[in-house]
Design a protein that fits this description.
By secondary structure, this protein is mostly beta strands. It has one domain (22-81). Helix content is 10%, strand content 35%. The chain contains one helix and five strands, in the order βββαββ. The protein has one helix at residues 52-59, and strands at residues 10-18, 24-27, 38-40, 65-72, 77-81. The strands form two sheets. The protein has a three-stranded antiparallel sheet with strand order 1-4-5. A two-stranded antiparallel sheet has the order 2-3.
Length: 83
C-alpha cells in the first residue's frame, strides 16, 4: 500500500539493480566472483530472490548495486527500492 501498488499487481520477489537503474542481475553463480555474473537490461529477465538475507548477501558483493522489489503489473514489471 505504501508504494502505491495496485491490488492486481503480483509480487515477483527481490532483485538486484545496478545504480542508475540500467541493469539487473540476471544470473549469478555464488561460487564465482561477482565480476563473472551476468547483467541484463530487462527487468523481466532479472534473477528473482525469495529471501531478504539471500538477496542482501548477493547485493553486497556487487559494487553500486541495490536491492529492489519487483511487481508484475500485467503488461510490465515495476521495481521499487527495498530500502
Amino acid at each position: 500500500m505504501k508504494l502505491g501498488v495496485p491490488a492486481h499487481a503480483v509480487y515477483l520477489g527481490f532483485g538486484v539493480q545496478k545504480s542508475g537503474g540500467d541493469f539487473f542481475l540476471g544470473d549469478c553463480d555464488l561460487t564465482q566472483k561477482s565480476e563473472h555474473w551476468l547483467w541484463c537490461a530487462s527487468v523481466e529477465d532479472a534473477h528473482r530472490f525469495v529471501g531478504w538475507r539471500e538477496v542482501l548477501a548477493v547485493a553486497e558483493r556487487c559494487v553500486g548495486a541495490e536491492v529492489v522489489l519487483m511487481f508484475d503489473y500485467g503488461e510490465e514489471v515495476w521495481v521499487f527500492s527495498a530500502r
